[in-house]
Fold this sequence. Notes:
single chain; mainly beta; Immunoglobulin-like; 7 domains; 5 helices; 4% helix
Amino acid sequence: MWRRILTTSCVFASLLFLGAEQATAQISTPPIRLKAMVESTGGVYLGWEKISKDTVGVYSIFRASIEMGAISVGTVPDASQFKQIDSTTRTSYLDRPLVTQHSMMFAYFVSAKTKAGGVLKSNIVVVSVLGSINNDYVRITSKPVDVAKVDVEYRYKVEAVSSDSSATFRYSLTAAPAGMTIDSTGLVTWIPKEIGFVAVEIKVVSSKGGQAVQRFSVRVSGGDGIVEGTVVDTTGKPIGKVIVQLYRSDRNLFFDYKAITDERGHFTMEHVDAGNYFAHAEHPEYLPEWYDGALSINNAKSITVTANASTSITFTLDSRYKPTTLFTVEGTVVDTVRLAPVRGATVVFVGAEFALNSTKRLSLDASTMSNMRASFDTDISLDHRLDGNSRFVFKTNVDSLGHFTLRIPQGNYIAYAFAKGYVKIFHKDKTNLLEADIIRLSGALTLTFALPPIPAVALGEINGAVIDSVTGLGVKAHVIAYRERWLKADLWRVGKHYVTDTDSTGAYTFSEMLPGDYILMAVPAGNYPPSFYNASGNVTHRWSEASKVTVNGNEVVGIDIYVKAMARTASGYTSISGSVNATVKGGGKGIDGTIVLAIGAGGSIAGYGVTDETGAYTIAGLAPGSYTVTADNPGYSSSPGTTSSPTYTATGSPEPASNNITLDPMGTTAVESDPLVPSGYSLEQNYPNPFNPSTKIVFSLLRSQRVSLIIYNILGQKIASLIDRDMQAGTHNASWNGKDDSGALAPTGVYLYRIATSDFVATRKMTLLK
């Protein structure tokens, strides 16, 4: 997303608009320090340092437009011209301002209300956005019609909007069943001839150059049966947003019908084919249930649907977390070096099914597992973050002695602790979310978290987004960074992995990263398999094909991970289970946190699972058929794939397949051999900072060209010229000894360093201390 930074004026550009007295106040001591950069599509990325969550919970983003000719002191928009455009609990935000001219400038600031009632405000940043890039951002706003009936005309009107109000659209079908057409107005028509699932992909191209893609599946049925009913809790209260599915209990028809309950708990499914079905109800806050009152499909009661008739069923769901049954979880958070309490630490218990997107084998019976992926797809407002504001997250801060106490319901949990300046640690000293031990809480519990302090070395940052490769839209996800062992062997014991969450737009940030080469993997919320970062923009499921990202005290931007939704070509309730083991002397050893994929006909991914601490996995929700099963875990050779064929019995019960896989440990993590600078052009944060007497500045060039690197004081006055010459493409560094061009030592204070080429301009600030 941030392949090329067009303008980043985090502080320097705003100096053009502020008087000297104002500039010092805005830059030297803002309560919230705001930075900005412009991505290649014209979006503006904003980022800031987190204020203590005890002080601030929500940040508000404000924007104002600036006339291009108004570049003089005192012309920054006043408070009345700034309008709030959004709010977030994250420390980053991606804005897409509408550019109506060849280029425009926008000013931003961020504010937050403290719990004590005060208001904190950031410095003002100003960026320039080229209209030729940003004037046509296209978005499809219509919701697809995903059901159809044999021999009945299917109709779906595609609606799209553009950031340029004068744009017109051209519509096309890039994937569609035979006979489906789309006209010049975006109306899709089709007369289905057989039941099943079909994939549809629609492309909308604007007259101004922008485009958008929508991809979905249509379920075609042939009958006239109706299934309706209600879903309530154990007190009789209706439950909304419950996913109700009918599964055909037939070896040859891998089909389902789906409905979502309304606020009255009611659902209706029309055009259901005659036959026998198993019905299932799912909601993230309740235990899943098969009709009639069964937790497993082996005890479920089937229903019979007849043509031109209505069948009524009712579900009564039990709460997943019973508030009347709470257990005390307590313990301490200590420093691994000093064994002293870690003040300011936070401890989090999060529901395992929720945190892992229902990927670990929490039950031997796959039919009892929760399908949290469907819940995320159905309820787009569901907060997916591990420390977010959902009913699945329980968190608290430690006291001055490092002690914590929580009262939480019975259930399966993943627990972790984190603090500023320390490595995030999951229960039993794990650092990888996928390897986190699951706590099956059924009584009081005491445990200790030991946090390793982050060494006093140059720390870096990685920014990027998780993006749907088809639609181009951001995807909510957990992101894991794997650091290679041999690059900094002495630091490996500190922390092997970093884990963070995207915001609702798909943007993510890793901070306080130790030096090293990293590979990054996204674990999306919803119906997506995990995918690794690849600089080519390809969807990548094997870690050996991932691109390395090098961090050495620098900030790396544009690390966008592309993902693709699993194709819905069949639906079922059977599964594949097994184990993944490493080849070691004396017998195999289970490999925790391994991704296991089930690949169907045509190479499409039908499902996936993640191994537990014993190496066991389950891939649930599969239709009968033949699948290729592969396993992948960084540091191990990827498996070539074996065949599994789960099915149903003659009576419709699931008959899972078993598949065990062995992986060879590798001496090194041989990811893509050519380390690259993902953003092409970059200007890194100087190191050390603050500094005395000298500091190093690292920058990268996409091609050979003339380069200017100049130091300015806080008033925008030139202090020293470090570089003014032609330079080759690649990564370079320059040092500043704190002296001006005359050789005199510069005074203590904040300085700006600015790089300029014919293609790239960027500015950062640094602090000289004496």
